[in-house]
């Protein structure tokens, strides 16, 4: 257990490589083998969604060559961001093994609050936005109260919320109905037009790879210093390089059209922040623990009620934020905002992206990947000029497949001891 | 929980004293006016038949269950253990019979659950090193601490649960059937570990059905029967006395079996 650095990763002196039953998984080949093992045992991660996306894109591209054009993809990213933010909140409640069926209504309510306060009552838009977000947070706290104090299943309380807040949205909008938001306002510009200048998009596309590399290198150095195995430099560089190349390529391609929407940038920023919070903070660890085994988490001294409350509050606040973004996207607070469509798409996106319905497993990135799948289908079917009846059926089918994959993978994980 | 119970009768040296603890589950009283003292540097074994209330008593000490009546004193001062974190804060660590691990988290995450290092930017490296150190002290045979606990065997899980209880340098450690799933060598390691923590001045409560284990380490054996105190024994008490106290009768299944074994294959095994 000598703490000196410079050991090769498979040296028996390393603290975590002492057991002879442990297979050597160092180096790039080892990493690939480890990945194959994981997939085989049912720990699929985002593999199904990536494969699914490839299939969907190939099919739509062959049916309509406009589909993968930069122009269409820019629109796709604008559309992704609104429901994507809502889906990010769904990831939170799914992590603790609960559900929020009312995100659509809450998003509609928040867009109604924005329209009424801003346009009808003449509040400054910043205040109206804050009020809408606060209303979302309050709704989440209400669900938490019902869940923690009265033991009301979130399925029921949020189903009631779905109806109740839809009603409140219609009530607030009143008989005059939809409100058009000022077209020249920064919010609407942000939702419809604002894209990153090309140099900015390239700079930002380099950030995730650079952050990954810096964090991984620091971890590797500290692990070496503590006598633990660490990943080889080659693998780290390869991973960071791959991320950077893919993102830069996407930015380059999108810059043929309008460019990368700022709204999508905001969405990705939120996803990265959530990913950090879920993976690298005590709060995220507690969320995973509560979703995995509530009683064990309680006995470990975690304030389980607070964790549930944070999940519900965050979900509803993000739903409200998504509602604001979609109001900006549509330049109106209308009666149809946040109907069933939004609700199911947000939940479907999280599940399709690989967050388990059974709690305790998931990632912020599943919201990003899942919503791209959902919006690709929607956009592809719109391009093919298919009716919404078909669109519903196909989206429903994709969701069913995603849940089947989740259930099968779960069964496989149980039999491979990876629950 | 009432604070009216008489704490003045408790021994001033005791680390934790329970006085007249009762716990009702509906019409069933799982514990009736049970007293228990835990002294620093002493191993108390809590024995009793199934349903005697051992695990309930441990859960009350761990803050998982709240007593219906009775008083608890820690360091001589009355305390209320209203939730598990209250007990953990006082330094009462517990290894539960069902282990209470999160199967979806890895070994390091389970050991540090609720007590992670640097909450805003988890220090995974330091936590992993400490986890290996703890597991090393227990001679654990765990190939990788980065595997989810679901991948571990029963014995490995038990070791993880024990390692977790030792993490925060507790003052009292409660072990509910700590060796039930362990192999021969690891049982010995755990017993050594229990003696080591006792020698460091901790109070240890161990529940076990295994009389060999109890006799091997206990300094004092407290018997519960049907939710009541039923005698305190030294570790060298005769098996007969212990079994009688546990089952509540001189003539019990164990003694009858002992007698029938003593007269093997007799032509007339009929009872008298």
UniProtKB/TrEMBL annotation, chain A:
Membrane topology qualifier: Multi-pass membrane protein
Keywords: Cell inner membrane, Cell membrane, Membrane, Sugar transport, Transmembrane, Transmembrane helix, Transport
Subcellular location: Cell membrane
GO cellular component: plasma membrane
Keyword Cell membrane included in the entry's annotation: yes
Claim: Transport is one of the keywords in the record: yes
InterPro entries for this protein: ABC_transp_permease (IPR001851)
Domain of life of the source: Bacteria
Principal cellular location given in the protein's record: membrane
Spans through the membrane: 47-67, 73-96, 127-147, 154-173, 193-214, 235-254, 260-278, 306-330, 342-360, 367-384, 390-409
One Gene Ontology molecular-function label: transmembrane transporter activity
Function: Part of the binding-protein-dependent transport system for D-xylose. Probably responsible for the translocation of the substrate across the membrane.
Protein name from the UniProt record: Xylose transport system permease protein XylH
Source organism: Roseiarcus fermentans
From TrEMBL, chain B:
One MF annotation (Gene Ontology) recorded for this entry: ATP binding
Keyword ATP-binding: yes
Record Pfam families: ABC_tran
The ABC transporter domain, residue ranges: 16-251
Annotated PROSITE patterns: ABC_TRANSPORTER_2
UniProt keyword Ribonucleoprotein present: no
Keywords of this entry: ATP-binding, Nucleotide-binding
Listed SMART domains: AAA
Protein name: Monosaccharide ABC transporter ATP-binding protein (CUT2 family)
């Amino acid at each position: 257990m000598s703490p000196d650095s410079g050991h090769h990763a498979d040296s028996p002196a390393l603290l975590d490589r002492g057991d002879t039953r442990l297979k050597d998984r160092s180096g790039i080949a080892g990493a690939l083998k480890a990945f194959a093992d994981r997939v085989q045992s049912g720990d699929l991660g985002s593999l199904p969604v990536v494969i699914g996306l490839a299939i969907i894109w190939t099919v739509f591209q062959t049916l309509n060559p406009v589909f993968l054009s930069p122009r269409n993809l820019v629109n796709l990213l604008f559309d992704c961001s609104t429901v994507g933010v809502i889906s990010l909140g769904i990831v939170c409640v799914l992590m603790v093994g609960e559900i929020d069926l009312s995100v659509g209504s809450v998003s509609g309510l928040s867009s109604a609050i924005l329209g009424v306060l801003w346009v009808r009552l003449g509040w400054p838009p910043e205040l109206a936005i804050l009020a809408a977000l606060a209303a979302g947070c309050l709704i989440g706290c209400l669900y938490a109260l019902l869940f923690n104090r009265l033991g009301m299943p979130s399925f029921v309380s949020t189903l009631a919320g779905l109806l109740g807040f839809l009603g409140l949205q219609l009530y607030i909008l009143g008989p005059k109905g939809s409100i058009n938001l000022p077209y020249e306002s920064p919010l609407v510009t942000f939702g419809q037009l604002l894209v990153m200048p090309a140099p900015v998009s390239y700079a930002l596309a380099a950030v995730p790879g650079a952050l990954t590399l810096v964090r991984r290198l620091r971890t590797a150095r500290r692990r070496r210093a503590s006598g633990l195995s660490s990943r080889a430099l080659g693998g780290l560089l390869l991973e960071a390089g791959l991320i950077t190349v893919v993102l830069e390529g996407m930015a380059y391609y999108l810059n043929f059209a309008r460019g990368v929407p700022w709204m999508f940038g905001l969405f990705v920023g939120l996803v990265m922040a959530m990913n950090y919070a879920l993976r690298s903070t005590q709060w995220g660890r507690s969320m995973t623990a509560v979703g995995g085994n509530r009683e064990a988490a309680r006995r470990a001294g975690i304030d389980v009620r607070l964790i549930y409350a944070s999940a519900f509050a965050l979900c509803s606040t993000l739903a409200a934020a998504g509602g604001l973004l979609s109001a900006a996207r549509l330049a109106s607070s209308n009666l149809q905002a946040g109907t069933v469509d939004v609700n199911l798409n947000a939940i479907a996106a999280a599940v399709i992206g690989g967050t388990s319905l059974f709690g305790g497993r998931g990632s912020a990135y599943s919201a990003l990947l899942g919503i791209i799948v959902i919006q690709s289908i929607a956009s592809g079917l719109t391009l093919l000029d298919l009716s919404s009846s078909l669109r519903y059926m196909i989206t429903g089918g994709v969701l069913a497949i995603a849940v089947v994959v989740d259930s099968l993978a779960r069964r496989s994980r149980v039999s491979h001891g990876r629950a | 929980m009432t604070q009216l119970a008489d704490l003045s009768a408790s021994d001033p040296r005791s680390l934790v004293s329970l006085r007249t603890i009762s716990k009702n589950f509906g019409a069933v009283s799982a514990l009736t006016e049970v007293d228990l003292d835990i002294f620093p540097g002493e191993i108390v074994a809590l024995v009793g038949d199934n349903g005697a209330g051992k695990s309930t008593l441990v859960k009350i000490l761990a803050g998982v269950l709240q007593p219906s009546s009775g008083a608890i004193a820690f360091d001589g001062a009355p305390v209320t253990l209203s939730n598990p974190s209250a007990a953990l804060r006082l330094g009462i660590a517990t290894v539960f019979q069902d282990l209470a691990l999160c199967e979806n988290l890895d070994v390091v995450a389970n050991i540090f659950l609720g007590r992670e290092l640097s909450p805003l930017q988890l220090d995974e490296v330091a936590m992993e090193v400490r986890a290996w150190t703890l597991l090393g002290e227990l001679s654990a045979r765990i190939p990788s601490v980065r595997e989810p606990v679901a991948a571990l065997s029963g014995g490995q899980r038990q070791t993880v649960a024990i390692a977790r209880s030792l993490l925060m340098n507790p003052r009292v450690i409660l072990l509910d059937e700590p060796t039930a799933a362990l192999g021969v060598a690891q049982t010995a390691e755990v017993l050594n570990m229990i003696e080591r923590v006792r020698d460091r001045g901790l109070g240890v409560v161990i529940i076990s059905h295994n009389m060999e284990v109890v006799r091997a380490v206990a300094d004092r054996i407290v018997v519960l029967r049907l939710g009541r105190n039923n005698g305190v024994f030294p570790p060298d008490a005769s098996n007969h006395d212990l079994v009688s106290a546990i089952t509540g009768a001189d003539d019990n299944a164990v003694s009858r079996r002992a007698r029938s074994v003593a007269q093997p294959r007799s032509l007339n095994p009929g009872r008298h």
